From TrEMBL:
The SnoaL-like domain, residue ranges: 13-152
InterPro entries hit by this protein: NTF2-like_dom_sf (IPR032710), SnoaL-like (IPR037401)
Name of the molecule in the record: SnoaL-like domain-containing protein
Gene3D superfamilies named in the record: 3.10.450.50
Domain of life: Bacteria
One Pfam family here: SnoaL_4
C-alpha cells in the first residue's frame, strides 16, 4: 500500500512539474505578444520565465547569443524603436505543447512554434512574415517554480535574417 501511495505521489509531482514547465514556456510568448508597438516591456513576463542567469542562442536568426535580457534588447531595442521587431506592427507566436524530459530539479523541453508578423505599412518593408521552428529549453526548478536556464532557437522555415533587415 505504501509503495502505491509513493508512486502516485511521484506521478502527481511529475504532472504538476510538467504543467508548471508548460506555463513557464507559454509566458515567453505571452511576453512577446502582450507587448507590441511602443509597449516594449517584455521583461514583465520574461523575468518570471528565465532563470536570473538565463541565456539564449538566437544566432540562427541573426540574433543574440547571450543573456535573455540581451535578447529583449535585440528584439525591442532602446524605446522599442530600433530592435529587430521594429519593422512589424503586430505579431503572434503560437506554441505546441512541449515534449518534456524531467530529471529531478532539471528538465529539457522542446516546443514547436509558428510565428506570424505583419509589417508596418509606413515603411518599405510592408511584408507579412511567417516562421516556424522549435525552442530547445533547459529548465531548472527554483524557489519560484520552473525557469528557463538556456534556450536555443531552431528555424524550420522562414528567412530569419529578413527580420534583421527590417528591424
Amino acid at each position: 500500500m505504501t509503495n502505491n501511495t509513493s508512486n502516485t505521489e511521484l506521478l502527481v509531482r511529475q504532472l504538476l512539474d510538467r504543467q508548471d514547465i508548460q506555463d513557464t514556456i507559454s509566458r515567453y510568448s505571452q511576453g512577446q505578444d502582450s507587448h507590441q508597438g511602443a509597449d516594449s516591456n517584455i521583461l514583465e513576463q520574461w523575468d518570471n520565465t528565465f532563470a536570473k542567469n538565463g541565456t539564449v542562442d538566437y544566432s540562427v536568426a541573426g540574433g543574440t547569443k547571450g543573456s535573455y535580457r540581451d535578447l529583449a534588447k535585440w528584439m525591442r531595442g532602446e524605446g522599442a524603436t530600433s530592435g529587430s521587431m521594429s519593422g512589424f506592427s503586430n505579431w503572434q507566436h503560437m506554441l505546441s505543447l512541449p515534449v518534456v524530459s524531467l530529471t529531478g530539479d532539471t528538465a529539457k523541453a522542446r516546443t514547436d512554434f509558428f510565428a506570424t508578423h505583419r509589417g508596418k505599412k509606413e515603411n518599405e518593408f510592408n511584408v507579412h512574415y511567417n516562421a516556424a521552428g522549435a525552442f530547445h529549453d533547459e529548465l531548472v526548478r527554483t524557489t519560484d517554480g520552473w525557469r528557463i536556464k538556456f534556450r536555443r532557437l531552431e528555424v524550420y522555415f522562414g528567412d530569419p535574417l529578413q527580420i534583421a533587415k527590417i528591424g
